[in-house]
Protein 1
Amino acid sequence: MTASAMLSVEAALEFLLSRARPLTETESVHLLNAGQRVLAGELRARLDVPPANNSAMDGYAVRSAEVHADAWLPVSQRIAAGDAPGPLAEGTVARIFTGAPIPAGADAVIMQEQAHADGERVRFSAVAKTGQNIRLAGEDIARDGVVLPAGAQLGPAQLGLAASVGEAYLDVLRPLRVAVLFTGDELAEPGETLTAGKIYNSNRYWLRGLLEALGCQVRDLGIIPDSLAATRLALADAAATSDVVLTCGGVSVGEEDHVKHAVEREGQLDLWKIAIKPGKPLAFGRIAHADFIGLPGNPVSGYVTFLLLIAPFIRARQGRAARASWPVSCLAAAFDWPRKDPQRTEFVRVRKASRDGQTVLELFPKQGAGVLTSMAWADGLARIPANHTVKAGEQIDYLPFDELLS
Ligand code: AMP
Ligand code: MG
């Protein structure tokens, strides 16, 4: 692939995924510290969950054949959650509570609302069906069954599931180390006084947020000056300690854009123009052992490019299950889009709204590549293919932000 080719956004995704070498180094991490980490191998259950038949109700464990409406039966034992009961004596019932093990011999639980207790005996207003109100051993997870597949990212549900099968430590892949750098002599940090000609470094904040949401270990190298020498130095340093080096800005062909030249000197540049709007200048390459990604400087361009192309790359690089396409659904546009871009697929900022009982997509009125307000307002992107217009009411492709990141 030549560095100057303009790639379709689909081809760019395919290319990036083909270059994503999944991490292989593993470590054993306690469950309490394993949030967001990626499981190295599949996790199998060493026991049934629940481990024993237990009661789904507060009530009485019975032999169903012995229960006749309004006949008295003696209560021979009391079983609370955590007890290990002996067998149920014939002709008797056991007082039992939710989560308590079912005694051998009992085959049903009658809930306490259908029981009338009088001292050590009880009668029931209903008969019992075999199995009723009993949670069976292995109902959630059977012993030796796969609990979680290799490559699963450990969110709250996954951690709870691993705990339920008794695993204290999990073999996970080490975190992906991502260095971030921001180019531009115009940049100041929030908190500093803004002098003439300067703007605040907004990219730093959404980019770190996205990387952290993906579970990356971020090394933030801050703002680097707009000079070839400084850019080369910073990139070489970043590459020495990271798996992926991400820069923002300075990636086009302007006189003050030094990233492209710096990468070409320090490593190799594979790709730098994508038929996508916003976000045409995107660089991908290598510096020493690290992957290099150069995001466009315009905040919306960078953010959209990250969601569409870089998040899937990072996911694959982390060793997570690869996703070769975007989560797309179809919804009606509540807007006209009369301008067509002859070459580039456009991803416009939209949000779902309800109109006359129908879910439609509203368009943020300002679609400029620097208008970060659009990202905070929107809940997703609508895809408009190159050379297409949209009329209100037409079904269009919708890509929700939360699914692009999940
Ligand atoms: P560049 O790609 O360096 O030409 O930058 C394109 C546009 O994005 C310019 O208007 C920059 O001022 C702006 N920009 C670059 N980096 C950042 C940043 N970190 N935060 C906010 N805006 C930026
Ligand atoms: Mg710049």
Protein 2
Amino acid sequence: MQTSTDTIESQSNSGTRRRVFSGVQPSGDSQLGNYLGAFKGWGDRQDEKENFLCIVDIHAITVDQDPEELRRQTRELAAMLFACGLDPDKSTLFIQSHVTAHAEACWILNCVTPIGWLERMTQFKDKSTGLDSVSTGLLDYPVLMAGDILLYSAHEVPVGEDQKQHVELARDIAQRFNRIYDELFVVPEPVIPEIGGRVMGLNDPSVKMSKSYSHIRGHAVRLLDEPKEIQRSIMRAVTDSENEIRFSNDPERAGVNNLLGMYKVMTDKIESEVEADFADARGYGDLKKRVAEVIIEGLAPIQKRYYELMDDVAELDRMLAVSADHARQVSEPKLQEMKQAVGFVLPDHSRS
Ligand code: AMP
Ligand code: TRP
């Protein structure tokens, strides 16, 4: 007899690739940290992992936003992710609101999630502090995120450190549902990337490079920056008063470490190879020049592909519609199992 764990395993593995789910907010201009810490790795690993990558527009409306801006940024992010190497034949990159199962799963999971679990979330505390009015959606944000992950029976959830608590909550919700109703859910693991996991600000290597500060001059390299601008930002990057080009954990040397880390991920080299590349370098000026070069070279084909995709929005929308169909095929059966488990009468589709 097949155990319920076997059943879950087989559902979550359509082929031999382990299933990965991640989501990205359609806000702001993507920056180099997004590429090196997330997008690049998703593309590089799409032959070995079965990727589901979701542009989370339903999450985006939990805080104030401009509707036209959200629509524009959603398409821009989709084009950027395809341009960064996500192949629609290998990865499923889709828009969250295209798959209504996400909102439905959120409702069912809301009903097994104690409200205290949500009030404890540090992101909720950070985002709600100082606001005159806080939406119910903002509190509920992590339950929607749990639904995203659990609908796809994902084993792995690559996220930044700041989202780890939300993935742990998704695990708790999965286990609670499994206990109360039926063993339906794979309990997912957060995966925090080591390489490129934290690309730091160029102006201040003690803070993570982020979209939220990309308006500050010299903080970030945006993926659509022109070569001249990239060069200028890198040349201005904060370093230190020593003159040694090697990896280091010393906070005083975080600027140089950050530049070397960018070079390492851009070139797919290991640390010793990177240090060997700079053995003949004359000072930090040389280091910065070469780091800027590999970034400019690496981003050029991405920018070209991005503008091609944005020039043909009808084609982009068609690609997204195909992915959404696939996402629906995978998530809908799980939603039906959830409905069955909690006691809903499933609609009779035999007449349609
Ligand atoms: P966000 O821009 O915060 O919505 O993040 C989207 C994805 O990019 C997440 O997987 C983040 O972990 C990743 N990411 C964002 N900024 C950085 C950074 N500075 N270094 C490494 N990864 C990052
Ligand atoms: N909350 C995540 C962030 O801000 C985005 C996200 C939504 C997500 N749903 C997800 C990430 C599911 C991983 C899995 O970065």
Protein 3
Amino acid sequence: VAAAERLRRCVRPGDVVARLGGDEFAVLLGAAPGPEAVLPVAERMVAEFTQPCAVGERKIPVGLSIGIALLPEHGRDVDDVLGNADLALYESKEGGRGRATLYAPHLGERSRRRAAIEQGLREAVARGEFMLHWQPRVDLDGWRMTGAEALLRWQHPVLGRVGPAEFITVAEQTGTIAEIGAWVLREACRVAATTLPGLTVSVNVSALQLRQGDFVAGVRDALDLSGLPAARLEIELTESIFIDDANDAMAVLRRLQQLGVRIALDDFGTGYSSLAYLRRFPFDTLKIDRAFVRELTSRQDTQAIVAAMTQLATSLGMRVVAEGVERVDELDLVARLGCHEVQGYLVSVPRTETEFGRLRGGWDAGARPHAPALH
Ligand code: C2E
Ligand code: CA
Ligand code: CA
């Protein structure tokens, strides 16, 4: 009711403010000659929602995102126009909310791409379109390769190569992540047992996957099927597992640990990055996100943060891995700040199984990159 009243304050008599359902409203502006007349109204609406709503004693923050479509330019009938306004709305939400976006044809293309990804994901496992690439992890003490992270690659029949940053989110939203994640686990364990002797393999698992079905049973099956010893498998999880139901997540982590599987906290330092998470569960590994590594050489405060995170994790018995190390100066700094291992383009980009085998075959523990000496 409060939201509807705020919207009504922004329009003229004769305009229509309607609730479509849930938290969705539609506004029909009668005499608006073009976008020049509509955008200021949208801006007023966004401004109306910067103040929280008072509900009883409490103040509840509310916000809105707006998608705009024009008649007749953006559709001939109600369905067309609402559909296109919806595409524009989606764009506003993606862009960080509190925005208004006017429909444009390229938004339609994006949604067609998304639909193609959504559809493609349903069949990708069965069609054998997925493949794992491997990126080495290297110990800073002896410059030995200690493990490899499995990174998922997808060749879409029409779109070509689609990156995991794009399709994993879609797989999570549409539920296909369970099937895909199960394939990744089985394939990673199979490759580890057959062609990666002596290495720990890391597998990324999304928070949703952890909650779907019996995740632990899936891990046990993958280990049994491949014969891989549990201690050679590391599951990488992000802090987001603690957001919705921390206790449930914790129970799954404990069962995994009982299996003998290692557990890593991935992307540490992005998002919530609470040091308190480190106390809540005895992770085996902490992976410091590239966002920190990137800033190390230019910012003193970042160095202090990484040093503190590393010290704390080390004293809690965790291995600390610096992610995304691209340059020698970054390598030297993370080593000095106490990290135990590195991963990143400096050592190698993620490679196919064959290319990875070649890298390992020619590995030289004496060949750690060093900065050229200054004279
Ligand atoms: P992540 O787990 O943080 O993986 C590391 C990402 O950083 C990889 O991107 C890797 O290629 C990239 N990277 C490695 N070294 C460097 C470097 O030196 N510089 C830069 N700029 N980047 C580097 P990728 O393969 O595109 O994967 C992106 C994300 O997708 C992963 O981030 C992970 O969150 C997710 N992902 C990948 N495979 C899987 C999977 O099998 N399951 C799930 N749930 N997520 C996956
Ligand atoms: Ca990872
Ligand atoms: Ca990461």
Protein 4
Amino acid sequence: MKVVVTRKIPGNGVKMLQDAGYEVVVGEQDGPMDRAQLLEFIKGADGVLGQLTDKVDEEYLNAAGPQLKIVANYAVGFDNFDLPALSSHNVIGTNTPDVLTEAVAEHAFALIMAITRRIVEAHKLARTQSSSFGPEVMLGMELKGKVLGVLGLGRIGSRVAEIGKAMGMNIIYYDIKQNPDFEAKVGAEFKATPDELLSISDVVSIHVPLLDSTKHLINADRLKMMKPTAYLVNTSRGPVVAEAELVEALKNKVIAGAALDVGETEPKWVPGLVELDNVVLTPHIASATNEARSAMGELAAENIIEVLNERPPKTPVKKP
Ligand code: NAD
């Protein structure tokens, strides 16, 4: 059987597939494959280990052919999957939950600390070699005693809440599902609407999946509900935040700042964003640790091996 891996990945994932006896072909290109290349590359594959930049839809499934049994996404988010198309082609979709939770939560916190303590601005200033200690130089916000609002208390959101708690923050959250066990464990407080959360948080960290119901969850109206001293951090998916409306809010000091790992039109940011000082940006690297990226490849490979042996995969995607 043939398994294709649409982009080079770190760790043992590819070796696991080779050891299982498949013909394994790895895309050697730099960056994501363009669409025509991808459709050609997956032709005849029984399994694909694919990237979140690969849109898996009717066209993709037709291009792969009827022998295709599994597309293993190298990501926990699977908004690149057309789920009805997968099920009508009898193709199983899998993702990589849990193994990247720590990496993403730690990155969310790195962004929270970078924006509230102005680390990137201070780094630029230090490199000018013209500034040193000053009572009013680079004042930021402390986290202890502040309110951390977690939007989406799933695997990653809960871990971010735990880290916030350890730093002395008061945790509130909004999710479509309330989690009384977590509330008791961490002392977190549930808010019945995102609006309520936004109006009292000092830091808002977003961890919802990208769905029709979460697209532009944060827009101009919701940004206006936030405190002018508050910060927005997004490590979920770009389109959850209306990025152009965020730029206006940042320019007009509607909120104090924003830190983003994901954008609406990656790798580009909307015009005006990169020039702002009250912004910290990273290029979709929240899961980019050696530990997480290796484990993601291994879990994706395990899923492929299970399905090609006609066993259930470890982590099938489910309709949200
Ligand atoms: P998860 O499924 O465990 O958690 C998502 C939570 O969001 C769930 O608790 C769900 O109930 C909640 N939710 C769904 N719709 C909602 C809505 N309309 N309003 C409020 N809450 C809602 O997923 P996870 O493993 O925590 O991952 C969360 C997301 O983070 C992924 O879907 C992915 O898009 C993103 N992510 C990004 C990176 C990155 O590199 N930046 C890495 C990993 C994950």
